[in-house]
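Our example copied in:
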Amino acid sequence: MLRKTLYGMGAPNALQLVAVNGYVLSRSERAARYSTQQRDAHFPDWTAAVEAAWAQLLILFPERPRRAVVLRENLHRCLDEALSVAHAHLAQWNPFIQFCGLPNEAQHGFALSGAHGEHGELVFQRPDIWMLQWKAPPDAVYESWSVVLADLDATSDLARGDLAS
């Protein structure tokens, strides 16, 4: 599933005002000025979801890149493994993960949210530690683990370290 978040009523991609004269607007003040809408699109597989995401990016940024986009799959294998481990811990809640597409986003943390107010984050800390925090009152999950790439040229060999609470 891909989630598209639209900000503001008239201009879905407009910047939002968060401060006036150095005063940060509260959430209620921002909500009064702007609203957000989320639209979910379901796809049969990853390939279809990726194609839809690229199509949406082409609409938002019609000028083509000056050079071809190169995705380094080996760099993302650690994320794939970390998502697999996180899913094992959070399967009963089945949370959404929010990717913003920022450089080094994993180090800032991926926001996780559940259907009933549960929330948390998945954070990468160099050199190879992933930390998971999840709050679903009365339950809470705090886990960390290591993901080590066994062989960058291998297609499916990932070694997962021991889990530590």
Observations:
- Residues 134 and 141 are 5 Å apart (CA to CA).
- Residues 73-160 form one domain.
